[in-house]
Amino acid sequence: MAKSRSLYECQACGYQTSKWMGKCPNCGAWEQIVELNKTQIEILKQTSSNTTNYESALPLTKIKEETIQRYSSNSKELDLVLGGGIVPGSLILIGGSPGVGKSTLLLKIAGNLAKKDKKVLYVSGEESKSQIKLRANRLEVNHKNIYLLTEIKLESIFVELNNNYDVLIVDSIQTIYTDKLTAAPGSVSQVREITFELMRWGKENNTAIFIIGHITKEGSIAGPRILEHMVDTVLYFEGDASKELRLLRSIKNRFGSTSEVGIFEMSQKGLVSADDISKKFFSKEESQPGSAITVAMEGTRPIILEVQALVSESNFPNPKRSATGFELNRLNMLLALLEKKLELPLNNYDVFINIAGGIKISETACDIAIIAAIISSFRNRPLSKDTIFLGEITLIGNVREIFNLDLRLKEAAMQKFTKAIVPSKPLQQINSIKCYEVKEVSKLIDWM
Prior knowledge:
This protein is α/β, with parallel strands linked by helices. It is built from eleven helices and 21 strands. The chain folds into three domains: 8-46, no CATH class; 69-275, P-loop containing nucleotide triphosphate hydrolases (Rossmann fold), CATH 3.40.50.300; 279-447, Ribosomal Protein S5, domain 2 (2-Layer Sandwich), CATH 3.30.230.10. 26% of the residues lie in helices and 24% in strands. The strands form five sheets. The protein has a nine-stranded mixed β-sheet with strand order 6-5-7-8-4-9-10-11-12. A hairpin with a 5-residue loop joins strand 1 and strand 2 (16-17). The termini are far apart.
C-alpha cells in the first residue's frame, strides 16, 4: 500500500512544503507551518486541476477591447482613488488599523448607493444587526435598499445572494468560513478559498464586492499574500484614530492609477470627503524658527505642507535622529550633506523632523524644505510664511529640477504665497508669486 504524502502550509503566507519546519523559509514566521488533512489536500488538487472552462489562446490583435462601465459611489474621494467610480464585477479589498473607519466608510457608501437604486447586501461577521443599525442612524443612511446579514458561513451567504444584489460588502474576510475546509476562520486556506469563491461569483453576476481585511502589527493585510493578488483593487486606510483626517491610498488597481490618494474627514455623520484640504496641513500664523512650507504631489493633487524641525544640543555621544512623515535614511543623508558642504556641527545636535497633519512625504521634491527648516531651527531664525521651498537635493549639494513645478506654484499662488525658492523658472509665469532660482545648497544660505 502506497504511503500517503503529507503537505504542510504556512498560516502566515501560504507557503507549502512536504515537511514540517519551525520557521517558514518564505516569510520568516515561527511556528506557523501546520499539516493539511486529506480533505484540504483534495480540494487543493481539484482547484489546481480544474480545466473544464479551457479556452484556446487567441492573437492579441483579434481580441476586442471592452469599455469599462463605472458608476459613482457619490463620494468624490473614493471615486478618485478607484479611478473614476465603481466597476461592476470588481473585487475591492480595504485594509486599515482598528478604529480608522473602514466599516463606517463602507456603510456610508452603502447608503449613497442605496439612494441611487442600488441593492446592497451588508454582511457582518463581527457586529450584530442592532450595532450596525445604531451606526446607520448616526450616519443617516437608513434605506430600504440596504439589507443586513449577520452570518459567517459562506454557503448561507450565497443563498442570500440569490436575491440579485448590485453590491456586496463583507466585514470582514477573516471571520467568514466555508464547510469545504476544516480549518479555523481566518486561516490561510479559508481566506484563499473564500476569496476565490467570492471573486468567481462577483465576475459571473457582475456584482461589485467590497471586502474589509484586518491588518497585522507590521501594517500589512492579515492572511496570505495571495489575497492581495486575487482582488482587483487594494486600498489602505491611513491615519490616527485620534485625528479627524484619514487617507485612503491605492496600492493596487486594475482599473485605474495607483498614484491617487483620497482624503476623508471624520465628522458626526461619519467619514465624508474633506473639503478645502489645502489649509489643513499648514498655518500662515506668526512664523516660528524651524518651520518651512513646501508643496507635495499626491497623485495629481498638489498639497501644501508644513515641515517642522527641531535642532537641540545633545548630551550624548550619539545624537538622536527622528523623522515623522519623512524617510529617516534620507534625513541622515541631508544632515551629512549639511555637515560636509556648509560645515554645520550637526553631529553634536539632536535633529527631529515632523510633517504637520500626519501626512507622509514619499518624494524628493521637498528636500530643500527639510534643509531650510533644519537651518532655521539651528540658527533660531524664523523663515517667511509667504515663501515656499521646492527642490531635490543631490549628494554633491546641487538642487535638481522637479516635476509638476507649474502645478505646485499655481496651488501656492491660490493660497496667497508670494515667494518661491525653486531650482528653475516655471514654464508659465505666475505674476502673483516671485521665484528665486537656487542651484546649490550654499546659495540657499545666502538667500536666508
